[in-house]
Amino acid sequence: MTSSKVATDHGGDEAVGEGYQRGLGARQIQMIAIGGAIGTGLFLGAGKAISKAGPSLILAYAIAGLVIFFIMRALGELLMYRPVSGSFSEYAREFIGPFAGFVTGWTYWLFWVVTGITEVTAAATYMTYWWDIPQWISALVFTVVLYGANLISVKLFGELEFWFSMVKVTAIVGMILICAGILTLGFSDAGDTASVTHLWAHGGFFPQGIGGTVVTLQIVMFAFMAVELVGVTAGESKDPETTLPKAINTVPWRIAVFYVGALVMILSVVPWTHFKPGVSPFVAAFEQMGLGVGAAIVNFVVLTAALSSCNSGMYSTGRMLRDLALNGQGPRLFTRLTKSGTPLLGTTFSAALMLVGVWINYQWPGDAFEKVVSFATISGMWAWIMILISQIRYRAKADRGELPQSPFKAPGAPYTSWFALLFIFGVIVLMALDAEARVSLYCAPIWALILGVSYRMLRSRDPENAAFKR
């Protein structure tokens, strides 16, 4: 029986049919949603983006944040229509076709495997700030510990993610309050020069021109990767009809506070010309303020952000593999659950592949991060594209009376969904024009070929399971 076949209602019994336990409460869902929007893309990647766009990066984050909200509301409409674990591939399978579901499930799985490798590599790098130990040892320890935690129960995953997210949120709020104090009270080394005029006094709000701002959109969108993770938790949320809409509706203020607000405060205290690529803007800001402890604090925060992302990868990969297996589009052995309701073999297989990150750190400890980071971008965007197309098609069917209306409609859809799709395709074009980001696009045809051949083999061997059945 597939997860699609058991999803005959829209309430709490669905997760029982899937075999999962509803172990994620409202507190954990909210923090998973918040944490999904805050990662190393903000703590580290913003430095490069600031050097390219200056203060206008604030506008880039605001516009991209609006697009992310459209994506999340589209996802929310689908989730309230049918809340299931492995939601992206389920919706693609139902509203686009069985091949789309197959591609989406395996691509999102790949996204988190590669992201897990990337983040455990980053975490190992951050550990060298305190201790001179080989990166591969740290990477191995982190991978094994997070793997073990994910096998115990979904509740433990949620608790880990809650505290990981709490660290990130506390750090950003603390930075905003410190900057506000400097602007109003004038303390620290930056107190005499801090002013909101820094937002336009050094070459204007667009010091590198509009083009410089547009170029940063791909960096900005990468920073928002994993915001859709809350959708994967639908099948294990205690009260999805209440908790998921609340979590999704907090997206605007999360982006306003943690991205726009934080950048406004930092760039008001420290001129944008002081930031450099490869250096965290948070570290640079603390140094300008004369707060030497800031570097250690930020290093701990980005370590937490990396471990949070790897933890999410462990969680989501096992669920995606099980969803594919339940629908006959993956090995049947991945359908097995432990007594605590965790997908043992799917998580184990994914964690084993993440151990490739340990080998990468052993072979190339100096440039390991750059060797894998670009592979995650295009696969993450594919999930967003499938969410938007699925929502557009679902809304059309619901409006014709062929399907029940979702109680959580996306405002302005389908026009907002079409706008978000065009925006994402525009970002992909920007990636094609950027030599560094272009690697992702080179990998896409290879992955598409592998999936195409695999699906053709699946269809020839088992045509019944290659098709979606509701």
TrEMBL record:
InterPro entries: AA-permease/SLC12A_dom, Amino_acid_permease_CS
Organism of origin: Streptomyces rubrolavendulae
Domain Amino acid permease/ SLC12A, residue spans: 29-458
Transmembrane segment boundaries: 31-50, 56-75, 95-115, 135-157, 169-188, 208-230, 251-270, 290-310, 342-360, 372-394, 415-433, 439-458
Family listed: Belongs to the amino acid-polyamine-organocation (APC) superfamily. Amino acid transporter (AAT) (TC 2.A.3.1) family.
One biological process term in Gene Ontology: transmembrane transport
Entry keywords, A to Z: Amino-acid transport, Cell membrane, Membrane, Transmembrane, Transmembrane helix, Transport
Compartment annotation: Cell membrane
Protein name per UniProt: Phenylalanine-specific permease
UniProt-listed PANTHER family: GABA PERMEASE, L-ASPARAGINE PERMEASE
Keyword check for Transmembrane helix: yes
Pfam families: AA_permease (PF00324)
Membrane topology: Multi-pass membrane protein
Primary location class: membrane
Presence of keyword ATP-binding: no
Gene field: pheP
GO cellular component, one term: plasma membrane
Annotated coiled-coil segments of the chain: none
